[in-house]
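subagent[fold] <- orchestrator: predict structure for attached chain, return C-alpha cells only, no commentary.
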Amino acid sequence: MGQGTGWSDADIYTKLGIRVVAAPFGNTSHPLLALSSGHFDILPLGVSEYERFLRQFTAHGGAGIVADRHLLIRYPWYRYIWVSMTAPNGALLWEALDKGLARIVADGTFEKIYEKYRGKTGIPSLAGRRIIDLPSPYESMEDVDPRFRRLIIRPQ
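subagent[fold] -> orchestrator:
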C-alpha cells in the first residue's frame, strides 16, 4: 500500500500488518505516478482528495489509473484546528477560537450549522460501496476536549 512520507495514515495500515511503501511526493500527481509505475499496488486517498489527485494526474498525461468504485476504507480521524503560538497574536487567536467554538457548541449553533450543510457536499459516487471499518491509533477520547466529545459521529 502506498503512502506519502510522513502521512499519518501509514500508521493505521502498518499497525494492522499491511505493508506500507512510503515515498516523498512533491505534488498531487506524484502519488499516482508512483502507483502507475508499480512502486506499490494500491493508494488509498481521502474522499475529498482522490478526484483532485486523479484530475491532476490525467492533466499531465498520466493514464491507466482508476478509482475503485466498490470499496470504501473508513477509520476515525479527528479534525483539529492548528494555531501557531509563535505567530503574532497567536495566543489571542487561540483564545478567541476556543471561546467561540465552546460558545457555539454549548448553545447548539454548531450542530444547527452542521445539519444545514451535512450531505450537501457529499460525494454521490460513494453510495453503495462496501465499507471496511478500520481501527485508528489516533482514536482516543482523551485527545478531544470534554466540551466537544458529544459531537463525535460514530458509524452506525
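orchestrator: received. Logging for downstream: The longest strand covers residues 71-74. The radius of gyration is 19 Å.
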